[in-house]
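ingest -> validate -> predict -> emit
validate: passed (alphabet ok, no gaps, 132 aa)
predict: started
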Amino acid sequence: MGDKQGDEPSRFDGYERTIEFRLILGIARALREEFGVGIDSHPGGEGNEAGTVNRAYRAAVNVIVGEVVPSDEMPGAMTRMLRGATLRRLAELDVARYTAERVLDSEAGLGDRWLAYLVLAPASLIDEIIAT
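emit:
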């Protein structure tokens, strides 16, 4: 599952144009629409587990990415995919690229949990995060 054969290019190359990337964006959008502002997507922290929706979303992304990326590239590939999805979400909300990068890097210690939180968060929460 997910292992490349020989010289076959990884479908992760140019990932923003892939169906997998669109699936990851679509799942995040569907979860935001389903749960609204009450979405349990918090990223957790030291000694605290991330919210249920955050964990479920990352599990789905893991499966999707695992189908197209060699297993030894998985951790980095999943982070790149989540980072790209988060940047796309923030761009849709008209967040300037510099501000978006600052927000993404503001809780780097939380890793993929922070990226999932941002891509799942309602627009009002993103506004609050940017304002701090």
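DSSP finds six helices and no strands in the chain.
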